[in-house]
């Protein structure tokens, strides 16, 4: 089993990292992928991936953070190629629910992450909330150029969106939300 999306740099995980790794191994987790959300978090991720052989990381900027932090493609590529345990681009994507960052900056950031992912031929960790149309159109455009490796993380979107993303060979991860009694549609989508 692989935890494809955790934030080991967040508390209380970070201060209890050794226990987290030990408990993960006890329950059969073979790999932990700790996901980057800011430039600052990447500094901690570089330290965390050295703690144990099962920990890997990514580099990217969460859509909530794009008003002040837009990475250029070369910075993403450089940060990923400098460490063999940094194995993906993200967390990136679009979140029009909270609007913590404006739509234009989110889209610009998302495209830079996609371009880096394509150049590196590594997975793209995608966050999408209340942005299905834009997310699909952007990913579909880039997928026409080259095989894009997409992981839709913590997927809570519609079944129609999932079907479209499957046409792009996307993978999906679920969170505990899938267990909520009022999320029958989401359970059926994953089924």
Number of strands: 7
Give the percentage of residues in beta strands.
15-25%
Please summarize the sheet with the most strands: 7 strands, parallel
Termini separation (Å)?
19 Å
Structural class: alpha/beta
The residue fraction in helices comes out at 25-40%
How large is the radius of gyration? Answer: 16 Å
Main-sheet strand order equals 1-2-3-4-5-6-7
Number of distinct helices: 7
Query: Which residues sit in consecutive blocks of at least 5 with pLDDT less than 50?
Result: none
N to C succession of SSEs: EHEHEHEHEHEHEH
Determine the mean pLDDT.
94
User: Which of globular, elongated, flat, extended, rod-shaped describes the shape?
Assistant: globular
What would you say this structure looks like, in words?
The protein is α/β, with parallel strands linked by helices. The chain has a seven-stranded parallel β-sheet with strand order 1-2-3-4-5-6-7. Helix 3 crosses helix 4 and helix 4 runs parallel beside helix 5. It is globular, with a radius of gyration of 16 Å. The model has no long low-confidence stretch (mean pLDDT 94).
Short description:
This protein has 191 residues and is α/β, with parallel strands linked by helices. Helix content is 39%, strand content 18%.
């Amino acid at each position: 089993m692989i935890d494809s999306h955790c934030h080991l740099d967040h508390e209380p995980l970070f201060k209890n990292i050794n226990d987290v790794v030990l408990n993960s191994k006890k329950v059969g987790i073979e790999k932990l992928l700790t996901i980057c959300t800011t430039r600052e978090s990447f500094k901690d991720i570089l330290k965390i991936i050295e703690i144990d052989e099962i920990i890997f990381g990514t580099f990217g900027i969460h859509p909530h953070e794009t008003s002040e932090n837009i990475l250029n493609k070369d910075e993403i590529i450089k940060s990923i190629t400098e460490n063999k345990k940094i194995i993906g681009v993200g967390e990136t994507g679009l979140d029009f629910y909270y609007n913590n960052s404006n739509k234009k900056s989110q889209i610009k950031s998302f495209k830079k992450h996609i371009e880096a992912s394509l150049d590196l031929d590594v997975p793209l960790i995608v966050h999408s909330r209340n942005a299905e149309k834009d997310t699909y159109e952007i990913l579909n455009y880039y997928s026409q150029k080259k095989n894009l490796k997409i992981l839709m993380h913590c997927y809570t979107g519609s079944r129609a969106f999932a079907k479209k993303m499957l046409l792009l060979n996307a993978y999906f991860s679920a969170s505990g939300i899938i267990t909520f009694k009022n999320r029958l549609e989401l359970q059926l989508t994953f089924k």
